[in-house]
UniProtKB/TrEMBL annotation:
Protein name per UniProt: YigZ family protein
Any one annotated GO CC term: cytoplasm
Signal peptide: none
BP-aspect Gene Ontology terms: regulation of translational initiation
Length: 224
């Protein structure tokens, strides 16, 4: 199973309408509870005329901090559904505030649970998810006549180029997962007939676009 440290790609706001009620979900990355509370207060202030500003958030390396609030909605119909969507998507250090402007039609407990869940999940889909992966910067030095071959190899293997410096030789920096480094170097030796140099740089956290559907397809293929 791949190592996942998932979070939202960016902060964002998305709105859905259900039976004339407006559900506005605000998603934000958070570092601690003080920041979470500050954002909740800010969203609440911006929506003073709203009927409810319900929220949930997860914090910590093992999601050891989990908070939720129904903010006046019937118990268990708002905060917990929001929290469950965050957990189902395996998101870390994320806050979701769902603001409701009542449209005059009561939804019932089941309807509220679905509405708050949908408001949160559609907003997550809208902003996107990334996997935070620690990779090592590898500094490559090659001859100019090797550049096209190397670029094709990197593109085929979805390895991004962080920077390129053109001097007497071409110097590139690429991020590689440490567990894949030996295999990567061997691939380059085969590709470039061992005519290159490399230096291991620092470890950095990279945000890799993440698709749950793609992950499920990959797992299904690996099992078959």
């Amino acid at each position: 199973m791949e190592n996942l440290t998932l979070t939202i790609k960016a902060n964002g706001v998305h709105e859905i309408d259900i039976k004339k009620s407006r559900f506005i979900c605000t998603l934000a990355r958070i570092k601690d509870e003080a920041q979470a509370k500050s954002i909740i207060q800010q969203v609440t202030k911006q929506n003073e005329k709203a009927n409810h500003n319900c929220y949930a958030y997860v914090l910590g390396t093992t999601d050891q901090i989990q908070r939720e609030s129904d903010n006046g909605e019937p118990s268990g119909t708002a905060g917990i559904p929001i929290l469950e969507v965050l957990k189902m998507n395996e998101l870390h250090n994320v806050l979701a505030v769902v603001t409701r402007y009542f449209g005059g039609i009561k939804l019932g407990a089941g309807g509220l649970i679905r509405a708050y869940s949908n408001a949160t999940s559609t907003t997550i889909d809208a902003v996107g998810i990334v996997n935070l992966v620690t990779k090592k910067e590898i500094k490559l030095t090659i001859d100019y006549n090797q550049l096209d071959k190397l670029k094709y190899f990197l593109d085929t293997n979805t390895i991004p180029i962080e920077s390129t410096d053109y001097t007497d030789k071409v110097k590139l920096i690429v991020p590689i997962e440490e567990t894949q480094l030996a295999h990567f170097v061997q691939q380059l030796k085969n590709l470039l007939s061992d005519q290159f140099a490399y230096v291991e740089g620092e470890n950095k956290i990279f945000e890799v676009p993440y698709s749950r559907a793609a992950r499920q397809r990959k797992e299904k293929t690996e099992k078959s």
